[in-house]
Amino acid sequence: MSTIAKAMELLEFFSLDRPEIGLSDFHRLARRDKATTFRHLSALESAGLLEQNPATRAYRIGPAVLRLAHMREVTLPRRAGLRVALPRLAEATGETAHASLLDASGLTTLAHHEAPQHSARVVLHESRLPLHATASGIAALAFGDEDLMKRALAAMPAYTDTTARSPEDLQAAVARARASGIAISNQTFETGVTGFAAPLFDSTGIAGAVAVAAVSSRVTPELQTLILTELMNAARTISANWGGTIPPALAAAWAAQAGPETAP
Amino acid sequence: MSTIAKAMELLEFFSLDRPEIGLSDFHRLARRDKATTFRHLSALESAGLLEQNPATRAYRIGPAVLRLAHMREVTLPRRAGLRVALPRLAEATGETAHASLLDASGLTTLAHHEAPQHSARVVLHESRLPLHATASGIAALAFGDEDLMKRALAAMPAYTDTTARSPEDLQAAVARARASGIAISNQTFETGVTGFAAPLFDSTGIAGAVAVAAVSSRVTPELQTLILTELMNAARTISANWGGTIPPALAAAWAAQAGPETAP
DNA sequence: TGTATTGGTTCATTATTCAAACCATTGGTT
DNA sequence: AACCAATGGTTTGAATAATGAACCAATACA
Q: Cys-Cys link to A97, which of A89, A143, A211, B176 (CB 3.0-4.6 A)?
């Protein structure tokens, strides 16, 4: 593992639950030498990627990140394409909606939107989603290449009792998603949460996924139908905003989903 | 220079004008070995901080940056505090308004807003502002500590004929800003652009600056008075949003500015 | 007072980077 | 087709960094 990779790994420990981390915590979390950790943190700080809370001396995300994110968003807009579709999806379904972006090593949560209707709603903590254990991941795998599948198969930790354990289980789930155009995961990542996801495309192909995370006990057949319909609409809108086209096979699968409902 | 610092430096070469950079360009821009540059880029890519454009193989900012920026904004909102004040400042003055955040090595542009009134307006290209050559930098220096001034004096490249060259010139400009509460820079960074800036504060002290960049030929005494008034209002609002307090000396300086106008 | 924990620093050992060469591919010219 | 000048990417021993165990200073707590 390169020095740079080690330093970058430190950034992975930040989350909405843990937005500030001190030297000793980093030392323990990363299981790396304290001196080394300190040097890495200092280097990241002087680059502006981190900054120290003057009061606690704990490290947090620095302002340089804002500049980089702004630049990416100006030249390659992604969040902008969600601005209307994601709140609409959350409101129409009454559940939490989120969209994630596919990169070399998995899915990164781009944005999430919570429905105002229910007091009990799914709150997202993780911003990095595993391919094999989330509806979003399955949706991406269903329309990604074999290389992506290989990376998913490389590491398959079990999060709950129902997380796919074997390559066969995973491939079966992916095949179902490919056939129906929507991935459904029943408590494979977090207990009590059922995930529904549709793939998103940009001009280069599969680019991410849009998903609804619903409280499992609330999912009735009626709600599920509503979620699937809204999810297809949202995915169509977002992919169009991102300059992507829906593959014919997926368009057909979606039409088949909607067909029985809209037929006279 | 540490390996991490070198890798981080690569990120500095991105700008709105140059959002994608290939291996050979990096090799030339950073004046560093091609093999090493490639390893650094690969490491940054596998961390998600960069990604390769599949068509051109050039590198661009990766999706991990969006996740980090989102996290910072949720836990330490800064952009949110500008949402109302910055557009108002641009509209009221008819010129381009922008706000920047102070970090260890200078100012980073957070957001900018262009006035709709004029077809000729200042368009910002640089997201990294030098302390010694911009109104924002002078404003920050006027209310920052000596350490910040030391860093400003360490590197003072000349951008135009009127950029401060000597430490004395800079310290004089800073003293004027400290006395009046507003920094004014006449074409010290870009020719044809006059900058006006006020310091911004958060709970820890000086945190950045809010500025108006005006087309120099359009600046009349009337416009200048308008800009100063609006700038003070904007700075007060934003600092309040950021949880900061205006130092008494600055409040007095601003009152003196406004005083002569509002006196009967 | 003693102890545990914090952030931060030092110095031999070990791993990485450097520079300059080389490969393979692509796009344009003659 | 042959050629040229780019591109991204890889390989080689000599130079230069990174590493980790122990150490230091300050704070908090009992």
A: A89
Contact (Cβ atoms closer than 8 angstroms) between residue B183 and residue B173 = yes
Of 3.30.450.40, 3.30.420.40, 3.90.1300.10, 3.30.70.660, which CATH number belongs to A76-262? 3.30.450.40
Decide if B16 and A104 are in contact by the 8 Å CB cutoff. Answer: no
Inter-chain CB proximity B66 and A103 less than 8 Å: no
Residue ranges of chain A assigned to CATH 3.30.450.40: 76-262
Residue A191: Cβ within 10 Å count: 11
Chain B nearest CA to A103, separation (Å): 7
Q: Tell me which residue in B4, B71, B105 faces A44 most closely, judged by beta carbons.
A: B4
Domain ranges in chain A with CATH number 1.10.10.10: 3-66
Cβ contact B55–A79 (<8 Å): no
Please name the fold of domain B77-262: Beta-Lactamase (3.30.450)
Residue A111 tokens read as: 């944005």
Which positions in chain A touch B55 (Cβ < 8 Å)? 204
CATH 1.10.10.10 fits A3-66, yes or no: yes
Region class of A117: left (phi > 0), else alpha (psi between -120 and 50), else beta: alpha
Q: Rounded to a whole number, what is the distance in Å from the CA of A259 to chain B's nearest CA?
A: 36
Pair B195, B212: CB distance under 8 Å:
yes
pLDDT tens figures, B200-249 = 999 888 999 999 999 999 999 999 999 999 999 999 999 999 999 999 99
Q: What angle do CA A51, A55, A59 make, to 5 degrees?
A: 30
> Which residues in chain B are closer than 8 Å to A44, comparing Cβ atoms?
4, 8
Question: Above 90 in pLDDT, residue A86?
Answer: yes
Q: Out of A11, A44, A67, whose CB is closest to B108?
A: A67
